[in-house]
Task: inverse folding
């Protein structure tokens, strides 16, 4: 875990003092809402449907138990007893009072947390692979690279007022668990033929109104040029990005209009100038950061055997437990998707329990996933049953990771002022329709993602099945998409046809799964069958 | 009818103009006729409300019912957490929204 140095502490403390004064001036009438709004947004404070909402950053999704407990404390003391984990690996609190906000930020700072880079047209909180540091398939831990980017991007004076928000993801394995190519910049840390680590840089991806998959811009950027190259990528965007039209302001539009080759040329020219500035950190600085992410002291000689005599436990192991790089250890994903529950929500008590489990069984570490679940990254296999039992006692042992009920859903019209339709009730109805876990397992990996508006916080473009809620003459209507993926087989979903009512969309999905079951070849997932047979058989079943 | 709504500056709570002040309960909302925009300006300047706006609503025996679902959800609370709405004991409260 990265630990703040004196600079981190001082800039966060200074930001809280500044915001406390801004809140005071707003409450005393010295600022209008128009003047205050951009300032509160820079501190993660939104005004949503029912109240202020505070979004707290979880850099690259990594937390320790102390930080997780603080989130539980915030939920209990300042909110209504729960928090909502988001698709940016952050957490949102939905019922915050303006006057409490400086105090909340002060409490967060005591555990090295903040709400910086969770809103505004800046480089947002860097996201990463939730299995980082534990994954058996990674070439290195991507988090030191992500932390380096956090330090580079936090309060970067040139990139505080970009044309639009800017999202970066960093991974270090061929398996993409972070929707890397659907980011403004996606970075895969790779090894070159000489065994050196560097970044493979994709630029111009994103979801939202105009979804795009980021093209490859540079195959390998060595560490020595890493920050300069990214600085050049941002500078070109900052110079040419469309500030005149919010719908065309993301970097994906710039690259689409320029073309990847022209953008690359511009970046290379800018890089030659930036490189002279000497902004790339020395290797020693990277090593200092990386030391914070040194692997924990794994016990050696542990058995890989797991007693699978309890069938429910065995099912959970099969679904929610993943391979770890250290013998005798495993990665546990805690599902925040109980049948009929709200995807990504956890009560303060559940947050505390996950913190306790991390402290006792996972070297004090937790991760937030972009799929709105929580990971215990380093659990000894001989502890798995105890962890499972404690999770089950807390209602957190749903064995549905990557199954149809492991739904990504944005807060939708139940909470969000931008939404056109409610996402959560649709997710609940689908989960209830497919509540039988045997049926879910029979369907296999099926990533279902729901957004309540075109902004696509629920990643509907990247769902094997995607749902987009729209407002049709004041009535909620739901468009259906098939064929998206945010993984290494990245693709964008296609709309099936006319939309559905809330109940109609559940029926349509059931019919689609029936087509899949009837037509799948051995080993095919839903999305594989869709890609092979195309949209028509599904449309016939749904609309016929 | 036209009614005026916004959020409380300090708490963020959804509030409704009652003719004399602001209430959390839409049942208290009064028709503002064509005075909504000027009322909004005055009340916002006095910091008694944040980002007020006028909406269309239907007058019903139970009180005003906003024309748009977004404002009906604002009036009640999240439909997926009945316990956090203004009518946690009313099992039919959600049907008023839909």
Result:
């Amino acid at each position: 875990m990265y630990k703040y140095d004196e600079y981190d502490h001082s800039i966060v403390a200074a930001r809280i003092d500044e915001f406390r004064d801004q809140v005071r001036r707003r409450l005393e009438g010295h600022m209008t809402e128009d003047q205050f709004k951009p300032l509160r947004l820079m501190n993660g404070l939104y005004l949503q449907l029912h109240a202020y909402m505070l979004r707290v950053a979880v850099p690259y999704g990594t937390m320790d138990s102390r930080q997780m407990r603080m989130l539980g404390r915030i939920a209990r003391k300042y909110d209504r007893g729960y928090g909502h984990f988001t698709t940016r690996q952050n957490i949102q609190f939905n019922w915050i009072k303006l006057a409490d906000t400086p105090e909340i930020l002060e409490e967060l700072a005591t555990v090295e947390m903040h709400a910086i880079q969770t809103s505004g047209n800046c480089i947002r909180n860097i996201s990463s692979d939730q299995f980082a540091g534990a994954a058996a398939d990674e070439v290195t831990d991507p988090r030191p690279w992500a932390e380096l980017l956090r330090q580079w991007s936090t309060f970067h004076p040139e990139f505080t007022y970009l044309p639009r928000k800017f999202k970066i993801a960093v991974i270090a394995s061929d398996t993409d668990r972070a929707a890397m190519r659907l980011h403004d910049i996606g970075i895969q840390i790779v090894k070159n033929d000489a065994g050196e680590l560097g970044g493979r840089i994709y630029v111009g991806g994103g979801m939202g109104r105009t979804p795009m998959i980021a093209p490859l811009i540079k195959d390998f950027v060595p560490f020595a040029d890493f920050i300069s190259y990214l600085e050049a990528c941002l500078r070109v965007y900052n110079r040419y990005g469309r500030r005149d039209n919010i719908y065309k302001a993301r970097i994906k539009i710039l690259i689409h209009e320029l073309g990847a080759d022209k953008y690359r040329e511009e970046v290379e020219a800018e890089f030659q100038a930036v490189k002279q500035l000497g902004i790339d950190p020395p290797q020693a600085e990277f090593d200092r950061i990386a030391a914070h992410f040194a692997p924990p002291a794994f016990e050696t000689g542990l058995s890989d055997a797991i007693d699978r005599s309890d069938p429910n436990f065995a099912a959970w192991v099969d679904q929610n437990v993943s391979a770890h790089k250290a013998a005798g250890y495993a990665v546990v994903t805690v599902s925040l998707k109980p049948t009929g529950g709200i995807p990504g929500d956890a009560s303060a008590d559940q947050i505390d329990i996950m913190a306790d489990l991390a402290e006792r069984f996972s070297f004090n570490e937790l991760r937030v996933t972009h799929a709105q679940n929580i990971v215990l990254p380093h659990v000894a296999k001989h502890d798995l049953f105890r962890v499972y039992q404690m999770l089950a006692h807390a209602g957190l042992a749903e064995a549905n990771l990557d199954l149809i009920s492991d739904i990504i859903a944005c807060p939708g019209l139940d909470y969000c002022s931008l939404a056109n339709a409610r996402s959560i009730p649709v997710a609940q109805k689908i989960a209830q329709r497919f509540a039988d876990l045997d049926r879910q397992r029979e369907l296999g990996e099926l990533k279902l993602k729901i957004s309540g508006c075109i902004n696509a916080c629920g990643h509907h473009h990247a769902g094997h099945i995607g749902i987009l809620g729209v407002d049709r003459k004041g009535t909620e209507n739901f468009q259906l998409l098939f064929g998206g993926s945010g993984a290494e087989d990245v693709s964008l979903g296609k709309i099936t046809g006319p939309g559905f009512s809330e109940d109609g969309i559940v029926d349509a999905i059931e019919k689609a799964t029936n087509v899949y079951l009837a037509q799948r070849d051995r080993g095919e997932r839903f999305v594989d069958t869709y890609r092979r047979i195309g949209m028509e058989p599904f449309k016939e079943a749904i609309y016929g | 009818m036209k009614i005026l709504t916004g959020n409380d500056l300090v708490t963020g709570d959804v509030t409704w103009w009652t003719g004399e002040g602001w209430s959390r309960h839409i049942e208290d909302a009064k028709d503002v006729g064509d005075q909504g925009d000027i009322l909004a300006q005055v009340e916002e300047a006095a910091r008694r409300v944040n980002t007020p706006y006028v909406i269309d609503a239907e007058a019903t025996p139970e009180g005003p019912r906003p024309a748009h679902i977004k404002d009906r959800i604002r009036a009640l609370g999240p439909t997926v957490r009945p316990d956090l709405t203004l009518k946690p004991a009313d099992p039919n409260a959600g049907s008023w929204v839909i």
In short: Chain A is about 35% helix and 15% strand. The CA atoms of residues 460 and 466 of chain A lie 4 Å apart. Chain A has four domains: 6-109, 142-291, 311-393, 408-543. The two ends of chain A are 54 Å apart (CA to CA).
